[in-house]
Amino acid sequence: MFLETSQLAIEGTAVSEIVIIGDAQEGTTAFTALFGEPIAQVEIDPREQVVVLPYSSGTTGLPKGVMLTHHNLVSNLMQVEDALEVEDGEIVLAVLPFFHIYGMQVLMNEFLSRGSTIVTVPRFDLEQTLSIIQERKITRFFVVPPIVLALAKHPIIDQYDLSSLKQVFSGAAPLGAELGEEAAARIDCSVVQGFGMTELSPVSHISLEGRSKPGTVGLTAPNTEIRIVDPETGEDQDFDGIGELWIRGPQVMKGYLNNPSATEITIDPDGWLKTGDIGFIDSEGFVSIVDRLKELIKYKGFQVAPAELEALLLTHPAIADAAVIGVPDTEAGEIPRAYVVVRPGQEVSSVDITAFMEGQVAKYKVIHDVVFIDEVPKSASGKILRRMLRD
């Protein structure tokens, strides 16, 4: 389906061949034509040789090619093995794209390596998904926050038997504690989350079965070190101190493809990867992610995290979805603006939303600028595309 796009993309470049899955069309090579005699053994250096080249999601800028080695991927599968506690006979539903590191590693590679059944669909459709869970007795469902939102609020949920589910695991973007608990109560199933990024193969934090804390991304994965660093002073923070999350471990990427300057900015000489995410760790070891460093809104010197405000907005009964960005303001520097999707059959005004927020957050976080839209733009992995809202 992407042939025409690919043909346009290679115009004016040195690329001379397009390999296509399926029957060859004019000017293309069939994928099956690449098959040759089986090779008995190939010598590789697992720590140096790149096995996959996923691209960062590009929610705040252009995507970058992430060089992940054999050692990165296998290490990360082993790091999450005990935490996931995969049992014999598990049936997993895969609605996430396998070109995204979350779908490729956590769903495809991990569960195939454990001998589980994976039911795949070409794209997410809520009604089809619920039907598959009911009919195939799905035990694990790996999702992104917009799907948790549907599980919590969509009226069609009550029409299906979801009792086979033993865990819904959310990742790729922050999930508010209230939304996670609302979904868990509605479907009578554990709803937890973890943290990762393409550059981390992807998991650095994961919630354990029976040991999770709402609103957090869980505990640090085995063989992983973390630091919480004040982005302005460079000083390490103590428990509950907010700063940028730095990570070091066997899952840290080799670097960005053909981009040594970006690699140098992201990974320091001691091997610490700067995630660009702001968070904190509590005295029990649970980590919470506040928001992306680049997404923080600077209001009169105060820092406002869009994810915090989005989580609050989603608790309003008339709001189906929401996204928050900072917009320039002469007096304050930046002010928060909310893009809101209203639930069908409901009515809510910007004045109502402002009144709803008052008393629940600090005064400088209360949103007075509201724009109503039909749909919040999101990537295939469920992340809000704030740059599209800014545009």
Radius of gyration: 22 Å
* Quaternary organisation of the protein chains: single chain
List low-confidence stretches: none
Strand content: 25-35%
Please report the number of helical segments.
10
Largest sheet: 5 strands, parallel
Could you name the key traits of this structure?
Rossmann fold, GMP Synthetase, Chain A, domain 3, 391 residues, five-stranded parallel β-sheet, globular, single chain, alpha/beta, four-stranded antiparallel β-sheet
Layout of strands and helices, then pairs:
Layout: H1 3-9, E1 18-20, E2 28-30, E3 50-52, E4 66-69, H2 70-84, E5 91-94, H3 101-113, E6 117-120, H4 126-136, E7 140-143, H5 145-153, E8 167-170, H6 177-187, E9 191-193, E10 195-196, E11 203-206, E12 219-220, E13 225-229, E14 243-248, E15 255-256, H7 260-266, E16 273-281, E17 287-292, E18 297-299, E19 302-304, H8 306-313, E20 319-329, E21 333-342, H9 350-357, E22 369-372, H10 386-390
Parallel strand pairs: 1-2, 5-6, 5-7, 7-8, 8-9, 21-22
Antiparallel strand pairs: 3-4, 4-15, 10-11, 11-12, 13-14, 14-16, 16-17, 18-19, 20-21
Helix pairs in contact: 2-3, 5-6
Give an account of the 3D structure.
The protein has helices at 3-9, 70-84, 101-113, 126-136, 145-153, 177-187, 260-266, 306-313, 350-357, 386-390, and strands at 18-20, 28-30, 50-52, 66-69, 91-94, 117-120, 140-143, 167-170, 191-193, 195-196, 203-206, 219-220, 225-229, 243-248, 255-256, 273-281, 287-292, 297-299, 302-304, 319-329, 333-342, 369-372. It is of the alpha/beta class and 391 residues long. It has three domains: 3-34, no CATH class; 50-292, Rossmann fold (3-Layer(aba) Sandwich), CATH 3.40.50.12780; 296-390, GMP Synthetase, Chain A, domain 3 (2-Layer Sandwich). It has a five-stranded parallel sheet, with helices on both faces. It has a four-stranded antiparallel sheet with strand order 13-14-16-17. Helix 2 (70-84) crosses helix 3 (101-113) and helix 5 (145-153) crosses helix 6 (177-187). The chain is globular. The mean pLDDT is 91.
